[in-house]
Every structure is written in C-alpha cells, then in structure tokens.
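2024-03-11 09:14:02 INFO receiving multi-entity request
2024-03-11 09:14:02 INFO entity count = four
2024-03-11 09:14:03 INFO echoing inputs for audit
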Amino acid sequence: MDAEAIKRSLEGSGLRCTPQRYAVMAFLMENNSHPTAAEIFEAVNQVDPRSSRATTYNNLRDLVKAGLVREVAVEGRAARFDAKGMRHHHFICDRCGNVEDIEWYDVPRPASGSLDKRILRECEVIFRGLCAKCAPRHASR
Amino acid sequence: MDAEAIKRSLEGSGLRCTPQRYAVMAFLMENNSHPTAAEIFEAVNQVDPRSSRATTYNNLRDLVKAGLVREVAVEGRAARFDAKGMRHHHFICDRCGNVEDIEWYDVPRPASGSLDKRILRECEVIFRGLCAKCAPRHASR
DNA sequence: ATATAACATTAGATATAGTCTAAATTACTT
DNA sequence: AAGTAATTTAGACTATATCTAATGTTATAT
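2024-03-11 09:21:47 INFO inference complete, emitting structure
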C-alpha cells in the first residue's frame, strides 16, 4: 500500500490527490471487504473527522468513472465498492448481501451474432448463494 | 401467454392468483424489456386503474421470492425485473442502464476450492458496454 | 352456505440511498 | 506567489423502496 503509488494512480487518471480522495482510495486498497459508501464514509471519518458524505459519494463516482474502482449493485441494498486490483469475479450472499471475491478466470464470450450492434466493454460473473457465515444456519432471514 | 398457465404457476408457488399479481406476472411474461417497478406499476394501472404502488412492490417481491421472476440490480438506477422463462444472461448498457437478454450458455464453475464453505445457488454473467441505441453516438452522457 | 383464518391490498408515512446546489476552499500550474 | 480550475461542504432535495395498520378477499372447514 505505497502512498506514492496511490497518488500516482490518481494523477494518472487526471484526478487530484486530495486527502479525502486519497483516504477513500487507500481504504479500498487495504480492504477487500467490498464496503458500502456509508461504511467507507464512516471509516474515512475516523481518520480525518472532517469529510462529508457528499464528498465520499463524489469521490466514489469519480474513482469508478476513472476505472480505478468497481461498483457492484446488490438487489435491494446499497451498492458496494472495491479497488480494481487483481481481476476477480464476485459472490453475493442471498441472505446478508455481502460481496466476496472469487478467483478470476476467463469466461467465454457468447456466440458472436448475439451481441450484434452492441459495444462490449466487459463481462463479469456473479455467483449467488449463501456465504460461509450464512450457510450453516439456513434459518431466519 | 395462456392465462391458465400463469394462474397455475402462481398457485404452484403457493401464491394466490389475485388480479394485481396476475397483472404483474402477465406483463412480465409478455414483455422481455426488463421494466422497473415504476414502469410495471404504470403499465398495470392502465389496465386496471385500481392498484397501488405498494402492491406492485409487494407482488414483485413475492414473485422473486417464489423464483418466478428475476430481479436485476443496476448501478445507480432502479432495479429491473424479468419473468424467469428461458434462462439467459444479461447485457447492461453503461449509458442508459437498459437491460437486455443475451442467449444462455453454460459458464464453467471456478476451481472447486474457491467456493469452499459457501453454498452456490446460481451463476450469472453480466455483459457491459453500450447498447445498440447508445453505441453510434458515444457523445454526451 | 357461512364462518373463519390466512392472505392480499391500500394510502400514506417513513426509511434508505444517493444527488444537487452554491458558496468556500484547496491543489496544481506558471 | 498568484491564478484557476477542481474539490469540498452542509444541508436540502430526489428517487427508490418499505412499513403500518386498517380494510378487503379468498380458501377451507364446518
């Protein structure tokens, strides 16, 4: 987690390295837990208590737009974010909504005709089921 | 679009076949356009103007829980729904957020160790890029 | 047929997630 | 050091979805 590396990757994307933006990026790189925006805001505020909710959202949006961070939408819950380090797929728990990494592997593209006039950018796989925490006790919701 | 077939599939899932619930299910089966809850509510209300927003949400939730309908979360936008007829994957447009079907094909599971204590239920592929409508004009957002 | 219990619907209030505004501040460039 | 464009901020606002509790409906048992 080299501070200079983070700074360089922000600047490489044309983003200024502000303390707030740096904090968001650093938190995501040290944390492969796929936090929500609210969780990131809270964590970042424990270090520097002067940062606003709007800024966290702004920065997450900028980072996603710059391709440094990935956003994962989860049905009926807040979106989750992760630093785009090593490529990986995702596992989303049906019960608790947590997002976990699944080792990357290449997925075959569909029959070429199927994508016709669309421009394909990426292709992700989402596995669903119960995470290790939720699996033992199928009970309650 | 056999009315009886819809009735039977609802009852087969232990759901009563109420006019409102039937309308939602029928609309989704006649429509592979992946509408949002708001669009479904509006469409259903044009047929029978007496149905409420809450009921539409309730029924969508019940149908998803029963496994008759699939919910697709889209980053920064309302969720979209489709009847689980033929299996298919999804294409989500980066620009307009529309969801389209991609012909189904089987995706290889990851290395077995990778899923360890989790219980895998399903595995979906999401393609991303620009849809046919948005592709020509990369411009604006 | 009727009672009854379980299920479903409703309007509107509420909750949650995220965006916008406009003024003040800050990081980078020269 | 100064200029300038990007960034931050608080709080209002919007969008999406859920909850509540009263009312209505349907299926089942009698």
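2024-03-11 09:21:48 INFO post-check: Chain B touches chain A at residues 71-76, 79, 89, 91, 94, 100, 102-103, 105, 107-108, 110-111, 114-132, 135 (CB under 8 Å).
2024-03-11 09:21:48 INFO post-check: The domain at 3-81 of chain B is CATH 1.10.10.10 (Arc Repressor Mutant, subunit A).
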